What we know:
The chain is an alpha/beta fold. The chain has one domain: Rossmann fold. Helices cover 43% and strands 19% of the residues. Strand 5 (82-87), helix 4 and strand 6 form a beta-alpha-beta unit.
Amino acid sequence: MQIFYASRDGQSRKIATHIAGRLAARGLSATPTDLGSAPPTAADLARAPLVVAVMSIRYGKHLPEGLRFIETFRALENPPPLVLASVNLTARKPGKDTAEGNVYLRKLIARNALSPVLATAFAGRLDYPRYGLFDKTMIRFIMLVTGGPTDPASVVEYTQWDRVDAFAGQIAEVLEAKTAATVKG
């Protein structure tokens, strides 16, 4: 199985890799795959027992490679089960880390008529020193508006790794249930 991710600053990759590690600990093979460099074909997705995507937000939108992935997935006649995780700084706030509470994930699901078996939002990492001038300025403005840190030296890891672990456990349960149903059927 592959865990597809779309990332600019590496946090979605880090989360996808972490999930893959947790699945491996349960004996389930999963390979993190960058949607920017290795987008799957429709045939690849159709053969998958489960499709997992971890996609980050940049300036209020999921990254273009993530949206292209969703288009490919939507074109499938009989798509496999879908698992979605959106990575964004909005999810740092209580209640904004669920499919219902996170505006970006909620819109992605609604606009694309998706029915994921699992969906969540994870808070990302704020790392001002890594950003270029434009990104730093834009993100500081967004943080000012949303009540976040604006100190250009700030580095804040908002990702709750225990939630990522729990999500990986849920993915494993879905995959194990699907495998058991296939063996019985």
